[in-house]
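Input.
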Amino acid sequence: MLSLTAFEHVINFSEMSQKAVLVGAGNVATQLGLTMSKAGYSIGMVISKTSKSSTVLAKKLNCPHSTNIHDIPLDTDIIIIAVNDDAIATVVKKIKHKSAHVLHTSGTTEMSVLKKHFKNCGVLYPLQTFSKDIAIDLTSTPLLIEGNSKKNTAILTHFAKNISKHIIFADSKKRKEIHLAAVFACNFSNYMYSIANTILKKEKLDISILSALIEETTKKAIKGNPELQQTGPAKRNDKITLKTHINLLKKNKDYQHIYKTLSQSIEKKYKK
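Output.
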């Protein structure tokens, strides 16, 4: 049960008057910053390692920018670290604001990297794929959150609800597993689309020819158990077709290796 003081803090943290600073100016920082700005939050500054990236995002958010993390205003309430996972620990050590709520947006980095340095901290991981120049509606995007205390989890929940309608509580262990699943479902799938696009381009065909196929596959995966929806030559063990495809890929050993590895894995899974 939250005390009255803590409850008042929750209300204050959810108010749009709170000043937030974005550390990072990449895909996640851009879309999160734009969403927060539309929701009425005051973005006090954008900090990025390069002046070019910080300038571009700051212009979109109509706020100051800097390449020096020590320039974070003293009255900052929320510091959101949205940088590459490998850079989080380094960034954390440079932040001197001990009273602000410090969040990172990583799917795999544990919250412990923040707990060592800040009294109020947590994780706000948007389960989505982002691009700087493609607007996205975060209101329906799952936000995986974790706070370092019950009070801070409640505070973070109120903040997250101003951004999305879909809030999920996930500790560092669970978040890592979800992120791993997301890499297979999104990043690896997109690379498969890239390979398909390369193959089609050789025949002067557009990837849009696969639109209906991709849409139906995705629809089936979301509605039911993907394991029950598997089709294709590897599942059927159509050796002639598999051999034909492998021969077509003989000029690209990387693609050929991927095809063989995936086909063998499918064959093994569905072997009767």
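The radius of gyration is 23 Å.
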